[in-house]
């Protein structure tokens, strides 16, 4: 199966996700948690939506903002770092924003950071004046430098940015960091965060004025439910009614609980949807405060 040749058929929604890489599997898993399923094509570039008219296009992450701008795809799952860089690039070339972040998705977390040799005593952005900074994010770095009023040279590299100082190509770098292990392996240290990033659902700067608008709304509602449910647990226990005032504040970020009277006197059974972490420690606190028969149940789906 191959995608329709033109973008004229506007009764299906087309979502671009990374073909392989860090965001590929979590993006698929999240969309599957929204009830989508696909028939795979043999070349695995286009997946035809079965349960809903929502198809997938599997591409390189860097292509996703452009595919949305060109109307080839309607939505995409991409790192905020890529989206903001390409938006910055468009605007620095005098073009309007054509895409924007619709939702943060809670995976693929990292930050775009400035890193300098470990031996430097970091005194602030002005220390970069006259220096060369290697990066794959020239628009975001230039914006930040301009904001700080620092005149430094941006050296564009497409990969292996972290070895640029050792190769004598630059004094500092601006790159994605998650654990920081790559930096320290190259005797560099992060000194400044430019952007906190994670995977986002990207869409056009405007909306859709045909049936895709309804499909996108449906998807967003399911996505919000799936994101909310992701860390949520149903907490159930029993307790004497007169202890409720002490127990309720211990529920981690809970929705108003359902409290049911038990047949045997003044006992209640309580269930609460908790969005905060239900840790062992929290369960022990609840038990000390009089809760009995504590049970934590994963939540499969939720529709507000
Ligand atoms: P592609 O072949 O699609 O171009 P890629 O090599 O550019 O893949 P990945 O390395 O898979 O992309 O990273 C995709 C996204 O994952 C990044 O843009 C970023 O948003 C996020 N990410 C999370 N942690 C990190 C990290 N430690 N290093 C790089 N990217 C990270
Ligand atoms: Zn890429």
From TrEMBL:
Record's PROSITE patterns? ATP_P_PHORIBOSYLTR
Q: Where in the cell is it found?
A: Cytoplasm
An example GO BP is: L-histidine biosynthetic process
Which keywords accompany this UniProt record?
Amino-acid biosynthesis, ATP-binding, Cytoplasm, Glycosyltransferase, Histidine biosynthesis, Magnesium, Metal-binding, Nucleotide-binding, Transferase
Cofactor(s) needed for function: Mg(2+)
Protein activity control: Feedback inhibited by histidine.
* A GO cellular component annotation in the UniProt record: cytoplasm
Metabolic or biological pathway, per its Swiss-Prot or TrEMBL entry: Amino-acid biosynthesis; L-histidine biosynthesis; L-histidine from 5-phospho-alpha-D-ribose 1-diphosphate: step 1/9
Q: Which NCBIfam families match?
A: hisG, HisG_C-term
Question: What is this protein's function per UniProt?
Answer: Catalyzes the condensation of ATP and 5-phosphoribose 1-diphosphate to form N'-(5'-phosphoribosyl)-ATP (PR-ATP). Has a crucial role in the pathway because the rate of histidine biosynthesis seems to be controlled primarily by regulation of HisG enzymatic activity.
Protein's recorded name: ATP phosphoribosyltransferase
Q: Which organism was this protein described from?
A: Lysobacter antibioticus
């Amino acid at each position: 199966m191959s995608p329709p040749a033109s973008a004229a058929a506007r009764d299906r929604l087309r979502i671009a996700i990374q073909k392989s890489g860090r965001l590929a599997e979590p993006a698929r898993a999240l969309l599957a948690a929204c009830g989508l399923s696909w028939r795979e094509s043999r070349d695995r570039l286009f997946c035809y939506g079965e349960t809903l008219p929502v198809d997938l296009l599997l591409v390189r992450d860097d292509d996703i903002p452009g595919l949305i701008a060109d109307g080839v795809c309607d939505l995409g799952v991409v790192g905020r770092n890529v989206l903001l860089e390409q938006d910055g690039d468009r605007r620095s070339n005098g073009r309007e924003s054509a895409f924007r972040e619709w939702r943060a998705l809670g995976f693929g977390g990292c930050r775009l950071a400035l890193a300098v040799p470990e031996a430097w005593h970091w005194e602030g952005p002005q220390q970069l004046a006259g220096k060369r900074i290697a990066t794959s994010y020239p628009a975001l770095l230039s914006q930040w430098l301009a904001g700080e009023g620092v005149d430094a040279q941006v050296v564009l590299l497409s990969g292996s940015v972290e070895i640029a100082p050792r190769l004598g190509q630059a004094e500092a770098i601006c790159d994605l960091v998650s654990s920081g292990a790559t930096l320290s392996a190259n005797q560099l240290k992060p000194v400044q965060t430019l952007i906190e990033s994670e995977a986002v659902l990207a869409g056009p700067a405007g909306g859709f004025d045909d049936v895709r608008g309804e499909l996108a709304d449906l998807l967003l509602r399911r996505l919000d439910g799936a994101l909310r449910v992701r860390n949520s647990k149903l907490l159930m226990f029993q307790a004497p009614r007169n202890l409720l005032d002490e127990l309720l504040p211990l529920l981690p970020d809970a929705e108003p609980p359902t409290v049911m009277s038990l047949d045997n006197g003044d006992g209640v059974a309580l269930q609460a949807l908790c969005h905060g972490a239900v840790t062992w420690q929290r369960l022990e606190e609840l038990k000390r405060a009089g809760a009995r028969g504590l049970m934590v149940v994963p939540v499969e789906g939720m529709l507000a």
